[in-house]
Specification:
The protein contains ten helices and eleven strands. By secondary structure, the chain is α/β, with parallel strands linked by helices. The strands form three sheets. It has a six-stranded parallel beta sheet with strand order 1-11-8-7-5-6, sandwiched between helices. It has a three-stranded parallel beta sheet with strand order 3-2-4, with helices on both faces. A two-stranded antiparallel ribbon has the order 9-10. It binds guanine. Pathway: One-carbon metabolism; tetrahydrofolate interconversion.
Length: 284
């Protein structure tokens, strides 16, 4: 008996179609389409792929996308000036600065400069704080996508033991806040965690986001657990793989996400939802 697969491509396509229908209705009513500004600094190949996929999703949703592809030599001041210009532009609803940024640019400073109402990544301390205080506004896309996938299982998370492996600002920390909001009992594991295997063995829900191929061993998974793999790692043979040892884990789990085609497409779907929400909040 293998786990059921959570098909992120399918769920993402449904969400983008829903967003697209709302945009079409808005445009038919004489309002402008939502607009997302996507900023890419430097030539990181993985970032270039993500940004291309975000722009394609904008087309599908009927958004206007504004693209800023800037050289790695861009100064922090120049980037902050661009962000301030986009903050003030009434035709722009969402601002996404793709991470990682080149080392000479302070990413935290850039994120804090984005108008929180246009922060469609949900990374600004204002949006993060709202999530922590149980009043989410723009939610970080990847963890929000994880929650939508968990909802699709139909399993009630209240009181469940959830283990998050990884404590990054983009995945682990906000995923822990989301799971807490859903009233799970949450354990966050990181590089200094002792007895990681035992913690995972006790989990009803495992969310892995460490960026290390096959880091979570399949035989750590409790029979019947739900496994959400946020990792997207490229192996030397060119193939993509997640943070969880998929083939073994899928024999034990009740539900599992594949890589690719799991959480990845969900991040983009939630970005489209956030951009529509930002547009509606800014231009009711
Ligand atoms: N880099 C990796 N994931 C993300 C994301 O969700 N948003 C941005 N802006 N950069 C990223």
């Amino acid at each position: 008996m293998g786990a059921q697969l959570l098909d992120g491509k399918l769920i993402s396509a449904e969400i983008i179609a829903e967003v697209g229908a709302k945009v079409a209705a808005r445009v038919a009513a004489g309002r402008r389409a939502p607009a997302l500004a996507v900023v890419l600094v430097g030539d990181d190949p993985a970032s270039a792929v993500y940004v291309r996929n975000k722009k394609l999703a904008c087309e599908k949703a009927g958004f206007r996308s504004l693209s800023y592809e800037l050289p790695a030599s861009l100064t922090e001041t120049e980037l902050l000036d661009l962000v301030r210009k986009l903050n003030e532009d009434p035709e722009v609803d969402g601002i996404l600065v793709q991470l990682p940024l080149p080392k000479h640019i302070d990413a935290d400073r850039v994120i804090e400069t984005i108008n929180p109402l246009k922060d469609v990544d949900g990374f600004h301390p204002y949006n993060f704080g709202r999530l922590a205080l149980k009043m989410p506004l723009l939610r970080p896309c990847t963890p929000h996508g994880v929650m939508v996938m968990l909802e699709k299982t139909g399993v009630d998370l209240v009181g469940k033991d959830a283990v998050v492996v990884g404590a990054s600002n983009i995945v682990g920390r906000p995923a822990a806040l989301e799971l807490l909001l859903a009233r799970a009992t949450v354990t966050v594991c990181h590089s200094k965690t002792r007895d990681l295997a035992d913690k995972v063995r006790a989990a009803d829900v495992v969310v892995a986001g460490v960026g290390i191929p096959n880091f979570v061993k399949g035989d750590w998974i409790k029979p019947g657990a739900i496994v959400i793999d946020v990792g997207i790692n490229r192996l030397d043979n060119g193939k993509l793989c997640g943070d969880v040892e998929f083939d073994v884990a899928r024999e034990r789990a009740s539900w599992i996400t594949p890589v690719p085609g799991g959480v990845g497409p969900m991040t983009i779907a939630m970005l489209m939802r956030n951009t529509l929400d930002a547009c509606l909040n800014l231009n009711p």
